[in-house]
């Protein structure tokens, strides 16, 4: 397949996405920081959705609490991996590229918190079917959606390859 060149439109989309995610993440965290006291909440939808202000010195579900240097190392390695993988993908892999931009943006949003505060500010809190889901933030949403987009497109590509291999039999 002929390699398609990246255009200014694509670059602008990636930069705009990055700025919106990082800026939106930091603004929402700052609003919560100035509105709620630590470990207090505000009910949005009773028994389902809350804003609960929490500090997280770890990763998802609080794992690796207090290992700040580990997160810096992971961030550097992840940055190199994301940039490398982004450069290796073809332009027509739009979901993968956009997903990688989201993952990178979310990682930077949380890294800013870790550098400035030594922890990540979380505030989005759901209780789903009685399960109190771990509190998260906009950066975490970007990372999750980004990973899902990459997995989805890889799945599509694998399915296409499988269909082609089946038709050649």
Structure description:
- It is a single chain.
- With 169 residues, this protein is an alpha+beta fold.
- Helix content is 61%, strand content 14%.
- A four-stranded antiparallel beta sheet has the order 1-2-3-4.
- The mean pLDDT is 91.
Short descriptors:
169 residues, alpha+beta, four-stranded antiparallel β-sheet, 4 helices
List the helices and strands and how they pair.
Elements: H1 8-35, E1 41-45, E2 49-56, H2 68-88, H3 94-117, E3 120-128, E4 131-132, H4 138-167
Antiparallel strand pairs: 1-2, 2-3, 3-4
Strand fraction equals 5-15%
> Could you report the average pLDDT, rounded to the nearest whole number?
91
Name the helix and strand elements from N-terminus to C-terminus, one letter apiece. HEEHHEEH
Radius of gyration from CA coordinates:
19 Å
Low-confidence stretches: none
How many H/I helical runs?
Answer: 4
Overall helicity:
55-70%
Read across the widest sheet, the strand sequence of neighbours is 1-2-3-4
Q: State the secondary-structure class.
A: alpha+beta
Straight-line distance between termini: 23 Å
Count the E strands: 4
- What would you call the shape? globular
Main β-sheet: number of strands, strand sense, barrel status? 4 strands, antiparallel
